[in-house]
């Protein structure tokens, strides 16, 4: 059997017999070629928390990178085709336990009327798959190596305090425990107006809701060192930081 002959046709230079074989669908094909291809939406990153009375709180992080992720936080990465819930190694236990609920609440609150069946993936720090890390430029597996929690820093300070001033270390431990009892929020959130604060934040003690990294960066001192200052000095520092 002889091999069939093939003719190469370029778009726009089709012969009449070509269109005749297709049922003359020129108009349909032209309309399809003019239809704009929908572009994928960019991913979005949100800080999220579960406040008192099971109230969910979401704060978008603009122009994000891996540096915005902290071991003390819980975050949502919205890839639109899927929603990832990332839990840091030291994030609040309540947020970790209710990770799925956080994602469902996020989808329900999205004004874009999201599909409630959107896939949800819960990830732990250090176990991120490539389809998650790919949304972060220059992802580093060693980013949090050597990271110290606020409690660890205080413990180190306590050891020094025991040598230097004996019983004063006990007081240091008590203040550290008090600081760790509070839910943590980004500095930008705590600087916002009173009516926009999360419901569990006391406007008079906003500093208690900072992460230990933000606290040291904001005040240039640990929580223990800050508490040791005179009340008027604390007040002035809080005013300067926009937390009063």
From TrEMBL:
Gene Ontology CC terms, in alphabetical order: actin cytoskeleton; cytoplasm
Signal sequence range: none
Sequence intervals crossing the membrane: none
Domain HP: 179-244
Pfam families listed in its UniProt record: VHP
PROSITE patterns hit by this protein: HP
GO terms of molecular function: actin filament binding
Domain of life the protein comes from: Eukaryota
Gene Ontology BP terms: actin polymerization or depolymerization
InterPro entries: ADF-H/Gelsolin-like_dom_sf, Villin/Gelsolin, Villin_headpiece, Villin_headpiece_dom_sf
Name by which UniProt lists this protein: HP domain-containing protein
Organism the protein comes from: Diatraea saccharalis
